[in-house]
Protein backbone atom coordinates (compact mmCIF):
# COMPACT_ATOMS: atom_id res chain seq x y z
CA UNK A 1 0.00 0.00 0.00
CA UNK A 2 2.80 2.45 0.81
CA UNK A 3 4.33 1.93 -2.63
CA UNK A 4 1.08 2.98 -4.27
CA UNK A 5 0.77 6.02 -2.07
CA UNK A 6 4.35 7.10 -2.81
CA UNK A 7 3.75 6.76 -6.53
CA UNK A 8 0.62 8.90 -6.46
CA UNK A 9 2.18 11.41 -4.09
CA UNK A 10 4.37 12.59 -6.98
CA UNK A 11 1.38 13.07 -9.29
CA UNK A 12 0.45 16.69 -10.13
CA UNK A 13 -3.09 15.85 -8.96
CA UNK A 14 -1.80 15.10 -5.47
CA UNK A 15 -0.38 18.60 -5.18
CA UNK A 16 -3.82 20.19 -5.46
CA UNK A 17 -6.58 17.58 -5.04
CA UNK A 18 -9.17 20.37 -4.89
CA UNK A 19 -8.53 20.93 -8.63
CA UNK A 20 -9.74 17.40 -9.28
CA UNK A 21 -12.89 18.02 -7.22
CA UNK A 22 -13.50 21.31 -9.03
CA UNK A 23 -13.08 19.54 -12.36
CA UNK A 24 -15.58 16.85 -11.37
CA UNK A 25 -18.21 19.37 -10.31
CA UNK A 26 -17.68 21.42 -13.47
CA UNK A 27 -17.90 18.28 -15.63
CA UNK A 28 -21.16 17.23 -13.98
CA UNK A 29 -22.74 20.66 -14.45
CA UNK A 30 -21.68 20.85 -18.09
CA UNK A 31 -23.04 17.34 -18.64
CA UNK A 32 -26.46 18.60 -17.56
CA UNK A 33 -26.66 16.90 -14.17
CA UNK A 34 -29.25 18.85 -12.12
CA UNK A 35 -27.72 21.33 -9.68
CA UNK A 36 -29.29 19.74 -6.55
CA UNK A 37 -27.70 16.38 -7.44
CA UNK A 38 -24.28 17.93 -8.13
CA UNK A 39 -24.45 19.92 -4.88
CA UNK A 40 -25.39 16.81 -2.93
CA UNK A 41 -22.49 14.85 -4.39
CA UNK A 42 -20.10 17.73 -3.73
CA UNK A 43 -21.32 18.03 -0.15
CA UNK A 44 -22.65 21.56 -0.14
CA UNK A 45 -25.79 23.55 -0.84
CA UNK A 46 -27.17 24.54 -4.24
CA UNK A 47 -26.57 28.17 -3.23
CA UNK A 48 -22.86 27.52 -2.75
CA UNK A 49 -22.75 25.50 -5.97
CA UNK A 50 -24.12 28.40 -8.01
CA UNK A 51 -21.99 30.99 -6.27
CA UNK A 52 -18.77 29.07 -6.90
CA UNK A 53 -19.44 27.26 -10.18
CA UNK A 54 -21.96 29.31 -12.19
CA UNK A 55 -19.20 30.84 -14.29
CA UNK A 56 -17.91 27.38 -15.23
CA UNK A 57 -21.01 26.32 -17.14
CA UNK A 58 -20.37 26.72 -20.83
CA UNK A 59 -22.16 26.22 -24.10
CA UNK A 60 -25.71 25.51 -22.98
CA UNK A 61 -27.41 28.62 -24.33
CA UNK A 62 -28.63 26.91 -27.50
CA UNK A 63 -29.85 23.89 -25.57
CA UNK A 64 -31.81 25.96 -23.04
CA UNK A 65 -33.25 28.23 -25.75
CA UNK A 66 -34.42 25.16 -27.65
CA UNK A 67 -36.04 23.69 -24.54
CA UNK A 68 -37.80 26.98 -23.76
CA UNK A 69 -39.05 27.19 -27.33
CA UNK A 70 -40.35 23.62 -27.12
CA UNK A 71 -42.17 24.37 -23.87
CA UNK A 72 -43.73 27.51 -25.35
CA UNK A 73 -44.84 25.59 -28.42
CA UNK A 74 -46.38 22.83 -26.32
CA UNK A 75 -48.20 25.42 -24.22
CA UNK A 76 -49.51 27.13 -27.37
CA UNK A 77 -50.76 23.82 -28.77
CA UNK A 78 -52.77 23.15 -25.60
CA UNK A 79 -54.47 26.54 -25.79
CA UNK A 80 -55.73 26.01 -29.35
How would a crystallographer describe the biggest sheet?
A: none
Uncertain segments of ≥5 residues (pLDDT<50)? none
What separation lies between the terminal Cα atoms? Answer: 68 Å
From the spread of the alpha carbons, the general shape counts as elongated
Oligomeric state of shown chains: single chain
Rg measurement, Å? 19 Å
Q: In which range does the helix fraction lie? A: over 70%
Order of helices and strands: HHHHHH
* SSE class: mainly alpha
Strand percentage: under 5%
Summed up, the helix count is 6
Verbal overview:
- With 80 residues, the protein is an all-alpha fold.
- The protein has one domain.
- The protein has 6 helices and no strands.
- The protein has helices at residues 2-9, 12-15, 17-30, 35-42, 46-53, 61-79.
- The longest helix has 19 residues, at 61-79.
- The radius of gyration is 19 Å and the shape is elongated.
- The N and C termini lie far apart (68 Å).
Amino acid sequence: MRRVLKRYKTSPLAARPYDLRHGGVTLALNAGVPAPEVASRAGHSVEVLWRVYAGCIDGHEQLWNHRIEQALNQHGERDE
